[in-house]
Amino acid sequence: MTSDDSGHSWNIISPDLTTPEQRREARAEGLFQDVENRTWPTKQRGPFLIHAAKHFTWQEYHDCQNFLIESDLAIHLPEFESFQTGGIIGQVIMDDCRDDFTSPWFTGRYGFHFSSPEILPFKPVSGRLGFFPV
After folding, report:
1. How many whole angstroms separate alpha carbon 50 and alpha carbon 11?
2. For residues 130 and 124, what is the distance between their CA atoms, to the nearest angstrom?
3. What is the reported pLDDT for 78?
């Protein structure tokens, strides 16, 4: 599991896309965040739960919005007040960790590549830095 700000967690899971058709179309258009940037590599692979951080600031919200605009990604963030925070919001498969990706989401030193994002019922969980057991 990884802990992150709520904006990135939302982009990875896209909980507003609730039907299989919506999720299939969004995946085909590259509208899910498929790479999470980190300054450190990992050998971890397999299923991971996605945790939305408890604290999500207006600045983080606007930074996320600006990134989407600057990257020309056709993703509309929900209203700031509607973000779920402080818990598990979904699950992904971590396929790879590399220092080069062609994804528009890759801007860091290392990227964790995710696939198969799934919405899970929200479960409040205290977060921590890095990977942690639930």
Report:
1. 11
2. 18
3. 81
| Host H or E run for residue 2 | strand 2-4
Q: How many helices (H) and strands (E) does the chain have?
A: 3, 5
What pLDDT was estimated at residue 4? 54
* pTM for this entry: 0.83
| Of 110, 86, 2, 100, residue with least CA distance to 49 | 2
Contact partners, residue 48, CB within 8 Å, separation at least 6: 1, 2, 91, 92, 93, 94, 114, 131
Nearest to 130, CA basis, from 53, 47, 15: 53
Q: What is the mean pLDDT, run by run of 10 residues, along the chain of 134 residues?
A: 62 83 83 89 95 86 82 78 88 95 89 92 90 87
Region label for 116, one of left (φ > 0), alpha (ψ between -120 and 50) or beta (otherwise): left
Q: Give ∠ CA 122-5-39 in degrees, rounded to 5.
A: 130
Distance CA 113, CA 111 (A): 6
